[in-house]
Amino acid sequence: MADILRERERQVFRKGQEASFQIDCEKQSVAGSVSQRACVFCGSRVVLYPIADALHIVHGPIGCASYTWDIRGSLSSGPELHRLSFSTDLQELDVVHGGEKKLHAALCELIEEHKPKAAFVYATCIVGVIGDDMEAVCKSVSKEKGIPVLAVHSEGFKGTKKDGYRAACDALLQLVGTGSTEGVSAKSINILGDFNLAGETWMIRDYYKRMGVEVVSCITGDGRIDDIRRAHGAALNVVQCSGSMTYLAKSMKEKYGIPFMRVSYFGVEDMSKSLYDVAKHFKDKEMLKLTQNMVREELQRIMPLLAEYKKDLQGKRAAIYVGGAFKAFSLVTALRHLGMTTVMVGSQTGNKDDYEQLRQICDEGTIIADDSNPLELSSFLEEKDVDVFIGGVKERPIAYKLGIGFCDHNHERKEALAGFEGMVNFAREVHGSVMSPVWRLTPRKRASSTLEVLK
Amino acid sequence: MSTPVPATKTKIKKAPRPNWVSTRNPCKACAPLGAALVMRGIEGALPFLHGSQGCATYMRRYLISHFREPMDIATSGFSEATTIFGGGENLKQGLGNVTSQYHPGLIGIATTCLTETIGENMHGMLTEYRKDHTGTDEPVLVHVSTPSYSGTHMDGFHDAVRAVIEQLAESGAAPSAYGGSKFFNLFPGLVSSEDLRFLKEVAKDFELPMTLFPDYSETLDGESMMKYTKIPDGGTKVAALRASGSAAGSIEFGRVLRNKKTAASYLRDRFLVPAERIGLPIGVQESDAFFEAMEGLSGKRTPEKYRRERGRLVDAYVDGHKYLFGKRAIVIGDEDMVVGLASFLAETGVVPVLCASGGKSGAMALSIAEVCGHLREPVAVRDGVDYMTIADEVELRELKPDFVIGNSKAAKLAKALGVPLIRVGFPIHDRMGGQRILHLGYQGAQRLFDLVVNTLLEVKQESNAIGYSYL
User: Fold this and answer.
1) What is the ipTM of this complex?
2) What mean pLDDT do residues A106-126 have?
3) Do B22 and A87 lie within an 8 Å CB cutoff?
4) Which of A400, B29, B215, B269 has a CA 20 to 30 Å removed from the CA of B252?
5) Of A175, A208, A243, at which residue does a domain stop?
6) Helix (H) or strand (E) holding B302
7) What CATH number did the domain enclosing B344 receive?
C-alpha cells in the first residue's frame, strides 16, 4: 500500500472502493511531494516549440533554455529553427539593472541572423520578479524588424503547466486572423494539439487529404507562422491535445465562429471515430464514403498485425501516467484492444470530468491518481504487479529499476504512436518491452520464478 | 596516415558576427543542477530545490537522461503568493513532507534564481526550522546558494561540495568512520560513476581509508531492484564528512579550481588539513601526478597492478602513435574535463586545436598552457562560450578538425562539420552508458586511447572505396 501524503489522500482513488467519487485535482503541487509536473514555462514551451520557422528565445538565466534545447521529437518538413536554443542568459548584473536592453539586443541580432517569420519570447521566473517590460521590448523590436514578436507570459511560478498552455494560446491568438484566407476551401480544418512527434502530424494530414479535407494549419506540429495567421479561414477546428488547445479552440469559436470537436488519434477505435466525426461534420456523402474506404483499408492492413501481438499481450497488466488525462482515455482503450488491463492510471493535469471519465472506462480496482510522484507510482507498480508502464522520461527509471517494461508515450518519443500505423508501432513497442527476455534475470522475476520451482 | 575528412557540410560564412549578446545553443547548465548532483552523492540524502516546481523537474529529467537512474529531487514549489510573501512556509512544509515520506538522513537544499532574487534568508529559515524540529530522527540540513544567473552547473557543483564541508566538518571530530586510522579526503569534481568506483579501488589498493565526496558511484548507477528504494544505497557518509577536518590531507581534482574557494582550501585554512590540487587524472602525466600524490599520502609505492597498467598504456601509445600524430581535435565540455582531455590528447600527438567550455573560471587558458606546453602548434582556448560561437570559431580559424571530443551536446556541431564525435564527460543522452565511461587513471586513458584511434581508423576505412583489411 502506498505511503501517501496526508495532503494528497484525496488525489488518489481506487475504483469501486469508495461510495462516491470525489477526487481532488487542479491543485498546486504539495511542497516536498516530488511531483512529476513541470511549470508554467514548460507548458508554454512545449506547445509553441514545434513552430519551426519562428525564433524561440528564453528570457532568463541559462537553465530554462539548456533543459529545453531540442528535447521534443517534433519534426519539421522545412526550417528547423525550433531545434536551436536561444537565451538572454541573464547574469547577476542584468538581474540588478534589468534585462530589457539585453533582450532587445538579443532579439535584434537573432532576427537579423536567422530571419524568422515571428519570434516568441518566453518569460522565466526571474523576469516576473525583476519586472522587465517584455511587452514593450517585443513591440519595439516588432516595429523595428517588421515581424510579429510575441511575449509569452510563462513565469514558472505563476501557476501550473496548464497556465503555460494558456499563455501559449494567448500568443497564438495574436497571430491567428492576421493572414489572408483567400482560397481556403469550405471543407477545411485546423489540426490543433498535435505536435508532429516522430512525424505523426504528417500521417494525420495524409488521412484528411485522402478524405478530401483541406488542412489550413497544424497548431503546432510542423507549424508555420503564415499558416497560423490564416487559421481563422478554416471551417472546423479538430482538437487532439485538449488540455493545451481547448482554450484556443474556444477563443476561435467566439471570435471567428469556428466550431471545434475533440478527437484522438491514439488507438484503432478512437482514430476511426475521429475521422468519421470530421466527415460527418461536413455532411458530405462522398467524403464519408472516402473515409469508410480508407478506414477499412487501414484496418484490414493492421488488424492481423495487431492480432499477432495480442497473442502474447493478452492478460498483461499496464499502468499509465501521462501529462494530460485525455490521452489516458485513448490509451486505456488501445491497451484493451491488445488484450491488456489498465490497473493504474494517472495524469499530471487532469480535471474532475477527466477523472470521472477514467473511472467509467476502467475496471474495478484500478488506481486513479492525480499529480502523483515517484514513491506513489513505484508502490502502485509493485502492488499491481505491472507488466508495462506507459509514461515519459521521468517515469522510465521508476519502471526499469523495478524490472518492469516501459513505453515512452511522452513528447520525447521517437516512435510515431498516432494513427493506424502508430497503433501497430505502439503494439510493437509494448510487446518489445513486455516480452523481452531481460526481465527473467531481474530480482523481481527471478524471485517469483524460484517460488514456482519450490511449489 | 589517414587523410583528414573534409568538412563538407560546413556552411561557409565569411565573417561571423563577433560579439553576440544572446547565448546560442548553450554549453552549460545552471548552478542548482550541479548542487543537486552533489547532494545525491551523500548517503541517505535527498536533494531539495528552494524555488518553483519546474526547476526540480527539468533537472531530474536532464540527470535521468544521462544516468538512466531514478533521480528524486524535492522542491518547495513556489506559487505566485509564495513569491510575493516569501517561501518560509513552503520550505517548512516541504522539508516536513520530504522527511515523513523519504526519512532521509540529510536534506541538501539548493536555492534557485527565483529565491536568490527575492532574497530568501536560508540560514535564518533553516535555523528556525531546526529549533522547531529537534527529534533524533530529524535529518541533517545543509544548504548552498546557487543562483542560476551566476556561473554554471560546475560552479554549483563545487560550491555545493564546499558548502557541505563548511557546514558539517567539525574541529577535532574523531575519524570514527575509519576506526581511528589515518585517512584522506578526495574531491574528484564531476566525473562518472565508473570513475568514482575506480578512485575507491585505488584507495583500497593503497590501503588508505578515503572520504570521497561526492560519491554517486552507487546512488546513480545502482542495481536492478526487487523493491523501490526511496533513497538509493551508497554515497559519502555524513559521519565521514563531519570528520573531514581531521584528515591527513585532501586531494582535489581540477587545475581550473585555482581561483576558487573550494572544500579542500576551506579545510586547509580552517583545520590545517594539507591540500593538494592536481589536474583531473586523464592520460599518463596527469595520472602520474595522482599516483604520486597517493604515494605521498600513504607512504607506499604504487601497487604493481597500476604500474603494469601504465606500462601497457605507454606501449599502446607507441603502437598507435602514427594514427594520431598531427590529428586535430576540438575539445568541448566542463573546464576541468577539457583540460584533462587536452593533456591526454597532447601527449599522444593529437593537437587540441580548440579547447572550449561554457564555464568561465578564468583559469582554463593557463591550465591548458600547462598541459599542452610541449606542442608546437597553436591551441586556441575559449571559455564562457556556446556551441554556435564554437562553430563560428572553427570556421573563422579554419581549424579543419578530424574529430570532436566532448559530451552529447556537441553532436550537432560534429555532424555539421562532418566529423565523428567521441562522447565523454557529461551529459551523454544519445548513447548508453555515460555513467560507466572510465576516464581516469591509466586504464581510463587506455580505453580513451583505443576509442580515439579506432574512431579515426573507422573514418579511414569507411571514407574510401578500398576498405582496407589491415590497418
Assistant:
1) 0.95
2) 97
3) yes
4) B29
5) A175
6) none
7) 3.40.50.1980
User: Can you give the residue range of the structural domain that contains A399?
Assistant: 314-414
Of the candidates A255, A249, A434, which has an alpha carbon nearest to the alpha carbon of residue A338? A434
pLDDT in tens, B79-119: 999 999 999 999 999 999 999 999 999 999 999 999 999 99
Q: What is the pTM of this model?
A: 0.95
Rg from Cα positions in chain B:
23
Number of structural domains in chain B:
3
Axis-axis angle for helices A268-281, A325-337 (nearest 10)? 120
Angstroms from A343 CA to nearest CA on chain B: 19
Q: Give residue B173's pLDDT.
A: 64
In a domain, B171, yes or no: no
Under an 8 A CB cutoff, do B228 and A63 touch? Answer: no
pLDDT digits (tens, 9 = 90+) for A231-289: 999 999 999 988 899 999 999 999 999 999 999 999 999 999 999 999 999 999 999 99
- Cα separation, B154 vs B189, in Å, equals 8
Question: At B77, is the secondary structure helix, strand, or coil?
Answer: coil
Per-residue pLDDT, A2: 58
Q: What is the mean pLDDT of chain B?
A: 94
Q: Do B24 and A86 touch (CB under 8 A)?
A: yes
**Residues A344 and A406 grouped into a single domain:** yes
The one-letter code for the residue type at B465 is A
Does A125 contact B58 at a Cβ distance shorter than 8 Å? no
SS3 B339: helix
Residues B287 and B341 in one domain: no
Domain that holds residue B294: 176-298
Asked if residue B118 is part of any domain, the answer here is yes
- Both A284 and A323 in a single domain? no
| Of B150, B166, B196, the domain-final residue | B150
